[in-house]
């Protein structure tokens, strides 16, 4: 790993980008509480990430307190980003977690700039902000407070039931800024869930979190994504998932088929060969070569299967294909909803919105799954 063998204050041309000096790495930590995991505590220079203009996302800004994710989802699109750190996209992504310990302080500085227009900020479209590490570092309350105090609306997408810890804080924040919450629940079969996303809370724990957030006054979106061909796309599986989502009080559902980006595909297929070898040929046909998206025919078939079940369970539902490139997605930050267009009583006294943008580092295009 490129961080090792450096000397404090000495440039290392072979270091990972942005960390040519050891000053950025505070320490690497292992603890019995998180057996098999290492936390690399770093000092970041920027917190707000500008989403590239070519991205299909409906928001322009993200904040990512962690890199790597202990949820260990075999299909996670972000796996390939760990290779930029000279770490592998497989087990290292699951166990070598980069923690930006000063990200909230840097964020406060950026939000105070006169050029910041209080555009919506998205949390959770890269690695999960409520993964297990958050239980140790408690970064999210600091981020939420910084955004709220600056009058910046924000959205959170997570698989983590740890979100419940911060519901009182988020409820208070929602009195001042627009706060959107979304929970990702892809697999409702406990045995399959432990196999394909072994570090995540159970589906029931996440549904309980949806219920708690709903009772706190939030209209929660559930992302039924990714739907796994031949594993979670049967009528019985979809009906069970949507029934339980409805019973948990979710306001809406966004669903979509599995994506397999290049950095993810080898890891997912290794899992498939180990756990479901009978499906390797079928998946090879659905995701041939470098293709990352299921064929249009499959996605159309899936939508025709899901939509009647949404009506049956009285859920507002959307296929990811229903949203043209860059258009709003329920539950996610929306660039069209700036503070001036929000509830007129929510952001009173914050002054005029400026149209210039702060100088922050661009980020790789985020995706959802």
From TrEMBL:
Residues 316-369 are annotated as: Disordered. InterPro entries: Elp3/MiaA/NifB-like_rSAM (IPR006638), MJ0683-like (IPR040086), rSAM (IPR007197), rSAM_sf (IPR058240). Keywords: Iron, Iron-sulfur, Metal-binding. Gene3D superfamilies: 3.80.30.30. One of its GO terms (molecular function) is iron-sulfur cluster binding. PANTHER family: SLR0285 PROTEIN. This is Radical SAM protein. It comes from Microbacterium lushaniae.
């Amino acid at each position: 790993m490129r961080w090792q063998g450096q000397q404090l204050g000495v440039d290392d041309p072979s270091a990972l980008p942005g960390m040519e000096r050891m000053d950025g790495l505070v320490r690497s930590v292992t603890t019995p509480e998180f057996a098999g995991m290492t936390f690399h505590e770093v000092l970041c220079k920027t917190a707000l990430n500008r989403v590239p203009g070519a991205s299909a996302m409906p928001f322009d800004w993200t904040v990512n307190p962690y890199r790597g994710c202990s949820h260990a989802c075999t299909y996670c699109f972000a796996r390939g980003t760990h290779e930029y750190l000279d770490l592998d996209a497989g087990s290292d992504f699951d166990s070598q977690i980069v923690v930006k310990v000063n990200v909230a302080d840097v964020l406060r500085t950026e939000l105070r700039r006169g050029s910041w227009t209080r555009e919506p900020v998205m949390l959770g479209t890269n690695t999960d902000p409520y993964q297990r590490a958050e239980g140790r570092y408690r970064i999210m309350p600091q981020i939420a407070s910084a955004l709220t105090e600056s009058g910046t609306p924000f959205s959170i997408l997570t698989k983590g039931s740890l979100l419940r810890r911060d519901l009182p804080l988020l409820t208070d924040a929602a009195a001042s800024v627009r706060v959107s919450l979304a929970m990702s629940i892809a697999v409702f079969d406990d045995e399959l869930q432990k196999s394909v996303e072994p570090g995540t809370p159970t589906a029931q724990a996440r549904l309980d979190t949806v219920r708690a957030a709903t009772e706190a006054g939030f209209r929660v979106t559930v992302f039924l994504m990714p739907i796994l061909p031949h594993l979670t796309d049967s009528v019985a599986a979809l009906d069970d998932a949507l029934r339980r989502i409805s019973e948990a009080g979710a306001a809406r559902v966004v669903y979509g088929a599995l994506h397999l980006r290049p950095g993810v595909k080898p890891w997912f297929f290794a899992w498939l060969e180990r756990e479901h070898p009978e499906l390797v040929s079928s998946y090879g046909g659905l995701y041939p070569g470098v293709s990352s998206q299921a064929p249009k025919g499959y996605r159309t078939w899936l939508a025709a299967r899901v939509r009647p079940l949404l009506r049956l369970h009285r859920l507002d539902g959307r296929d990811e294909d229903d949203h043209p490139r860059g258009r709003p997605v329920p539950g996610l930050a929306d660039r069209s909803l700036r503070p001036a267009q929000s509830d007129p009583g929510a952001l009173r006294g914050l002054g005029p919105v400026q149209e210039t943008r702060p100088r922050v580092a661009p980020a790789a295009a985020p995706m959802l799954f």
